Amino acid sequence: MNLVPNYNKNQIFSYGILFLSGLYFAFISVYSINQVDLGFQLSAVERLKAGQIIYKDFDFIRPFFGVIFWDYLLKFIPLQFDYLILISRFFVIIESFVICYTIQKLIFERKDLQTTVFLVLCFLHTFPIMPWHTIDGIFFAVLALLFYKEKWYLSSLLFIVFASLTKQSFMIFGLGASVIILFDLFKKLVITKKDLYLFIPSFLFLIAVLFQYRIIENFSLFIDQVLQSASPSYLYEGCIAPYFSFEKNFHTILYILSLALIYFININRKVFEIALMAVLPVFIIYPFFNDGQFRGAYVLYVLLFILFLKYERQNKFIFLLLFLGWCSSISWGYNTPAFFILILLYRFIEKQNKFFILLWGVILTVFSIYRSKYPYASESLASKHVFIKNIPAVSGLLVSEKEYSYILEAQRIHKVHKNIIFLPASPLLDIINTSFLNRASWEMDIEYPSWKSELQKLKTNPIAVDNNLFHYYKKGFFVSSITLELMKQKKAIRKTKYFTIYSN
User: Fold this and answer.
1) Where does 14-109 show beta strands of DSSP type E?
2) CA distance to 45, 73, 98, 146, 193, per residue, from 113 (Å)
3) Between residues 398 and 244, which one has the greater pLDDT?
4) 3-state secondary structure at position 76
5) Separation between Cα atoms, residue 71 and residue 42, nearest integer Å
6) 0.90 cut: is pTM over it?
């Protein structure tokens, strides 16, 4: 009698890759740091913990809900907690699992754990693991779509409000999705008990937030900072042109004609499924031959829209997610639909089930190598690394010796100059030192609307200017005028390996 379970090869490979995926999530939780972006959202949270009031005491040019969401998630984490970044990364991965499980329920036939894990790999792709307003907006938006699918219309509309209050571009999604939901609601005006059970406490929570964080009291400041005038040309250059425009007009015309032919010519869907099966590994491997940069994401995203329009035009949730992915890509920095592109690509080829394990293995392998070789704004795993101990916020992280040395030097400088400000963009150092002396931890003009009024206030503060970062912020879109002006007002008194210190 055979007492050993009769597992087939696919099951064995599936469990093996599931285990390796768990190791991968643990690895990306601890591996590498970057000085500019990693601490941005958390620096705003730490300012709240330190007693500052959003918009009144510090500049924040985005809506408030993402920061407040993270303030609640980290409510019991004290200031200067050694493992702040590590815990926040665990939360980001959990948040990503919720997002992908929800998307799975919305548009996928497969409902198993393996597919959820695969989708999380696709969602996070090579994005640095950190709290980020775009991920928060996606989180609330996909939950809103799930509630809409369940016909919990009030809860759906409220969570769309939550999503819209994380980032301005999600307001576009909020307007479009709200029209669709309201149309269905008024077509058959039925409110379920489950809907009310979720809507009422969630609505009360929103009201409490508005008063607790003094949003209503500082509403004019909220409007002034969040609705800053943007360049009119950006509406085209940042939102539409990347998807449809090439350097040469001939290529743009050829591209649009090709999309039209794909849509109108009668071609069996399996042809495109096989073609995209080949495209997926090429798309994720290409960065190794392009200095770590993806290419063709915009073209591929539009192609997926055309293919879904051709073969699944009745599935409104696919198009709502395509719309959400486009809105998530509207950004000054990370303006790409990368959070959705691989998920939607796999959704189109989902019926090619026999290749699932292979695709999962390829994506896990490629992204593991990619993150080791091209960690965001950091050094590859090939250099010597150490685990950080006994340093606020970053303990437990595996970082290069150079990054570790950088942090230690910044701490030494801060001990000598207690009221020093690190420029031009060092939110992680603000967190480590619990030092929030100016109104922004990203001191670029676009993120620091009140910088001119701060010049007099910061006249006596010494500053430490990052020797390597400074040239990125001397001119252009991310210029840091306050750094330039303070350097003019003061004189260099000391230069270290990583910083130049200026004082009166």
Assistant:
1) none
2) 33, 25, 12, 18, 30
3) 398
4) coil
5) 9
6) yes
Q: Lowest-pLDDT range, 135-144, 226-235, 293-302, 344-353?
A: 226-235
Lateral strand order in the sheet of 491-495: 421-423, 463-466, 499-503, 491-495
Residue 351: count of CB within 10 angstroms of its CB: 10
By residue count, the chain amounts to 504
Q: Sign of the C-alpha dihedral, residues 60, 64, 66, 70?
A: positive
φ, ψ for residue 87, nearest 5 deg: -65, -40
How crowded is residue 168: how many other Cβ atoms within 10 Å of its Cβ? 20
Band the pLDDT of 289: cuts 50, 70, 90.
confident
The answer to whether residues 116 and 101 touch, using CB atoms and an 8 Å cutoff, is yes
Tokens standing for residue 141: 């938006």
Encoding tokens for residue 310? 């051709």
Question: CA-to-CA distance for 20 and 365, rounded, in angstroms?
Answer: 10
Share of the chain above pLDDT 70, in %: 97
Q: Residue 206 CB: number of other CB atoms within 10 A?
A: 16
Which residue type is seen at 264? F
HSE, side-chain direction, 13 A CA sphere, residue 48: 25
Yes or no: say if 367 and 125 are a contact pair by the CB < 8 Å rule.
Answer: yes
DSSP 254: H
Tokens of 39: 């601490």
Q: What is the pLDDT of residues 31-58, one digit of tens each?
A: 999 999 999 999 999 999 999 999 999 9
CA 340/CA 66 separation, integer angstroms: 20
